[in-house]
From TrEMBL:
One Gene Ontology term from the biological process aspect of the record: cell differentiation
Recorded family membership: Belongs to the Frigida family.
Pfam families: Frigida (PF07899)
Keyword Transferase (UniProt): no
Polar residues compositional bias, start-end: 436-445
PANTHER family documented for this protein: FRIGIDA-LIKE PROTEIN (PTHR31791:SF38), FRIGIDA-LIKE PROTEIN 3-RELATED (PTHR31791)
InterPro entries in alphabetical order: Frigida
Segments of skewed composition (Pro residues): 113-122
Top-rank lineage group of the source organism: Eukaryota
Keywords from the UniProt entry: Developmental protein, Differentiation, Flowering
Organism expressing this protein natively: Triticum aestivum (Wheat)
Region (Disordered): 98-126, 407-460
Feature: compositional bias, Low complexity: 413-423, 446-460
Protein name, per record: FRIGIDA-like protein
């Protein structure tokens, strides 16, 4: 009975085990489905968030584009309505120029063309510029600007008003810079670089080319079509020359700046050249006029990308200037950028100090770099009025400490350099005997050495005292100190030229004569005679080299 009951119960246990296994499989399936659901939920949530952020960005850009388009449409309407008024203003200006007294022109012949006016004799910058512009003398104008390059502030202030006296400012400006831009065509290039003068003239002619309507102004430059075509040709020539020399990035900063200013002044920017303009702006972003030129050349849509690239390259100060010019301070806050610039600069100083600590030059260079960085940050903060958000007391204190340390180093270096030769002479006179010529140069008027011997070896002293009748020195066995093999301290460890034949002193000469035809007086001071040191020579009786007359040293 028991066996039969066990056989009947066995299938029921197997069914229960199979049921539990099925439940476990179902549980694992539910868990995997739950995990898959969570993953899908997160994936679709990220997609929704990405789509939402892109939509918000597109909406923001659309609003910016619509606002910009509406502004440009309004500007076009105003320009269209102001054409008649602008023409009247231009005609009235021409009438005023025509009625103004013209400069006198002498004729070489009765029928010949008028000779160019001589340079203005006045030293006044304003009068000289006005006379040259009224006479339409571009060559003399450029020469005048180059000659007054030390008065660049006065030139920058007076050039716009002077250029407005030109009958055709666009042609006059291009004629003035054509000798050095786009290619320097001078036979003798002296001064070497005149790109700065081109930039100065091209910047100053912008007000003269602006629309007479004050509401429009420089937004509509009054450049004739012929002048604009010529300006395009000059820009194309500059690009060809730059690419032939290795690219615009390798151009000189003043030359690249002059090119961008030329394009902006005469409004000849090309859409296909926007990438070229962007490359130049990024390569020379540290120049003060680059943010304004970037906007003038139509790079306002690329300003965010330009600023981000500047930050990536570690040019946070330039990024701050671009952000201010483009009005992107909300996205690119200046204070964090300035702090980041100081932190990066500090890392560079520490790295430069660790590269070469054995040489003092690395420390000097690091000091200069840190001072330059501090001055740049201070100037940026002052220019943009950020003192309330970025206090400058600590930076100014650090700058003062660096300048004081630099001054102290200079003083120490100058004192060491001035004391070097004297210390060498003293060192040379402190050990052992020396030749009469050396002894004479190191003696005072009395014939005594300027610094008596302070340190002699015990063996040397023994040799001197123990041999009264011979000048044995340093145990060499030679009666003279000149022809020993060991180098004297005066010769920096190098042996002097040996004498072929030792000089034989006379047995007893009371007062030696050196061929001056006059006896010299004995030293006024007497020194104790050491026992056993007198060799029988009167001049060497007190262990001193023979004292010569003062005329010997002249």
């Amino acid at each position: 009975m028991a066996a039969a009951a066990a056989e009947e119960a066995a299938p029921g246990a197997d069914a229960i085990m199979d049921g539990f296994a099925e439940l476990e499989r179902q549980q694992e399936l539910l868990a995997s489905c739950t995990r898959l659901y969570q993953q899908l939920t997160e994936h679709f949530g990220s997609l929704e968030r990405g789509i939402k952020s892109r939509s918000d960005s597109l909406r923001a850009r659309r609003r910016v584009v619509e606002l910009r388009a509406s502004r440009r449409l309004d500007a076009l309407r105003r320009r269209e309505l102001s054409i008649d008024a602008s023409v009247k203003l231009a005609l009235s200006r021409l009438d005023a120029l025509a009625k103004s007294p013209a400069p006198k022109r002498d004729r070489e012949d009765g029928d010949g063309p008028p000779s160019p006016p001589p340079p203005p004799p006045s030293d006044d910058v304003a009068e000289g510029l006005a006379a040259l512009c009224a006479a339409m003398d571009p060559a003399g104008f450029l020469a005048f600007v180059v000659e007054r390059r030390k008065e660049v502030d006065a030139l920058r202030a007076e050039l716009p008003a002077a250029l407005q006296r030109c009958v055709d400012p666009a042609r006059f400006a291009m004629d003035a810079v054509s000798e050095v831009f786009p290619v320097d065509r001078r036979a003798v290039r002296s001064p070497t670089d005149l790109a700065w003068a081109c930039v100065l003239i091209l910047e100053a002619v912008v007000p003269a080319l602006a629309d007479p309507d004050p509401e429009i102004g420089a937004a509509r430059p009054m450049v004739p079509q012929a002048a604009r075509d010529r300006a395009r040709g000059m820009a194309a020539e500059w690009k060809e020359v730059a690419e032939r020399k290795g690219g615009v990035e390798g151009a000189k900063p003043p030359d690249a700046h002059a090119f961008l200013q030329h394009v902006a002044t005469f409004a000849v920017a090309e859409k296909e050249d926007k990438e070229l303009y962007k490359r130049i702006v990024l390569s020379f972003s540290w120049r003060r006029q680059m943010p304004r030129l970037a906007l003038t050349l139509g790079l306002e849509d690329d300003m965010e990308e330009i600023i981000e690239e500047l930050i990536t390259k570690g040019q946070q100060l330039d990024a701050v200037n671009f952000a201010y010019e483009a009005g992107l301070l909300e996205k690119f806050s200046p204070v964090p950028l300035l702090k980041s610039y100081l932190e990066d600069s500090k890392k560079i100083y520490c790295t430069s100090d660790n590269v070469s600590t054995s040489s003092g030059q690395s420390g000097v260079n690091a000091n200069k770099k840190e001072q330059s960085a501090l001055r740049a940050v201070i100037k940026c903060v002052e220019d943009h009025k950020l003192e309330a958000e970025f206090p400058l007391e600590d930076l100014r204190k650090r700058l003062e400490d660096l300048e004081m340390a630099k001054t102290e180093k200079k003083k120490a270096a100058s004192s060491c350099s001035s004391g070097g030769p004297a210390s060498k002479r003293i060192k040379g006179s402190t050990g052992g005997a020396m030749s009469p010529s050396k002894s004479g140069r190191l003696s005072d008027n009395t014939g005594a050495p300027s610094s008596p011997a302070t340190a002699t070896s015990s063996s040397t002293a023994t040799a001197f005292i123990g041999s009264p009748a011979s000048h044995v020195s340093y145990g060499t066995g030679s009666p003279y100190s000149y022809d020993r093999s060991a180098g004297h301290a005066l010769y920096c460890g190098q042996s002097p030229l040996p004498m072929r034949e030792p000089y034989a002193y006379p047995p007893a000469v009371p007062v030696p004569n050196v061929g001056l035809g006059m006896p010299y007086q004995a030293p006024p001071m007497t020194y104790p005679i050491y026992p056993g040191y007198n060799s029988g020579l009167g001049a060497y009786g007190n262990a001193m080299a023979p004292a010569f007359h003062q005329a010997y040293y002249r």
